[in-house]
Amino acid sequence: ALPVPPAGGLEAHTIHFGEDAMLSCQLPYDLQTLKAKCEAGEQFTLSNLTDGYIGRFGDSYGSNAADWVELAKGSAGDPSWDDDELTCSGLVVGADFEFFHAAFGAAVDLQRQIVGARLSFRTASWRYASAPRQIFTVTASFVDVPTGAAAQFVPPAPGLFAPIPDDAFFPFAVGPTARTSTGGSTGARRRAR
Predict the structure, then answer these.
(1) Who contacts 69 (Cβ-Cβ below 8 Å, separation ≥6)?
(2) What tens-digit pLDDT sequence spans the chain (193 residues)?
(3) Rg (CA), the chain
(4) What share of the chain is helix, strand, coil (3-state, %, to 5)?
(5) How far is CA 174 from the centre of its chain?
(6) How far apart are CA 121 and CA 101, in angstroms?
């Protein structure tokens, strides 16, 4: 589960494994706050959403490093302020989490685990208006990483009888290459004379 912490009285949400989600809110900013943050190169709330690691199984132990996957975190960049237009360009307006998961374990009891995670930021230009409210959006998506179907070998079914060697009836010929004679054996003809 990915907890989205409440800020400024906002409601907290938990995102469960495998459930894609989109959450958004509107936050007010006055002209002085927007300009000060933009000129200082500061991003707003969404650029500090996570510590940088995601639990591989959801109930990972803090002491076992193998239970954690590092979050690949994109750069939000620095915003810039335009006094003439009252516009902050490069402002973070959204964060997109992608969780890559794959199956592992015995074929009869496959488990899902997170094998990678990425956080990217969406930026936009925001122009100050008399009643400014900025919409922030957070999305979470779960991407299945195919590991390939398990190779399953099924041997051919055994025959009803064991195979018979080609020379089992030697000196008699068996099969399509056997020669047939209509006159009987040559030894039998000689004795008859």
Answers:
(1) 53, 54, 55, 56, 114, 115, 116, 117
(2) 444 444 555 566 778 888 899 988 887 788 888 888 888 877 765 555 557 888 888 777 778 888 888 888 888 888 899 999 899 998 888 889 999 998 887 777 788 889 999 998 888 888 887 667 778 888 999 999 887 644 445 556 666 666 677 777 777 765 665 555 554 444 444 444 4
(3) 37
(4) 15, 40, 50
(5) 60
(6) 21
